[in-house]
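Researcher: I'd like a candidate sequence for this fold, 206 residues long. If you have to choose between options at a position, lean toward the conservative one.
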């Protein structure tokens, strides 16, 4: 894949027992049985209800120059693209950069307001990362999620920095960080407790 310019980073909010969402995810409850209304308000309240306390971490979330995400994070449509779906985020998604969506079903790029364009990649995580690196130039590429996609990149040794936002609740089941990932060596770079969350940053060594 050539020399690396920017880093590959990953931000993921997880419960204390390591789940990024609860079981039973659906279009009506995208975060499943998440201890709330199914829309992630409990897991992600630190971003929306305590935004100023967590401003530094929120700003980092939006600092990547390109993003990669799994199809499950993009939306609930499975199989061929048999109905319009442009993500959960409305007409102006928060990425403001190219986003490369992993899928098995081809689709033309979808430009959105605010500088986000969704590109649909059918030839695997390596190809998606290569395209994201080309789009990012010397900037960072962020693996946005969900947990299954993050685990694939961790297992392949493609993540440089892992930023976890650990929320003090347990979910007991659902998509879980590190499932299927071989043993990793990590170096803690930073940690910061806040009212609803503890922010942990690790360099992935091997």
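Model: Candidate sequence:
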């Amino acid at each position: 894949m050539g020399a690396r310019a920017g880093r590959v980073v990953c931000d993921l909010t997880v419960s204390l027992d390591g789940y990024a969402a609860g079981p039973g995810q659906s279009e009506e409850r995208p975060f499943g049985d998440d201890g709330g209304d199914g829309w992630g308000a409990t897991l992600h309240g630190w971003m929306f209800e305590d935004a100023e306390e967590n401003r530094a971490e929120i700003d980092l979330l939006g600092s990547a120059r390109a993003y990669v995400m799994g199809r499950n994070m993009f939306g609930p449509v499975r199989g061929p693209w048999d109905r319009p779906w442009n993500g959960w985020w409305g007409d102006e998604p928060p990425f403001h950069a190219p986003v490369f969506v992993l899928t098995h079903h081809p689709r033309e790029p979808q430009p959105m307001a605010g500088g986000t364009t969704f590109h649909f990649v059918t030839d695997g995580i390596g190809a998606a990362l290569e395209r994201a690196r080309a789009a990012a130039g010397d900037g960072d590429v962020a693996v946005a999620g969900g947990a299954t996609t993050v685990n694939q990149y961790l297992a392949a040794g493609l993540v440089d920095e892992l930023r976890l936002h650990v929320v003090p609740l347990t979910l007991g089941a659902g998509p879980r960080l590190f499932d299927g990932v071989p043993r990793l060596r990590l170096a803690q770079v930073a940690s910061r407790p806040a009212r609803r969350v503890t922010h942990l940053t690790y360099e992935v060594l091997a």
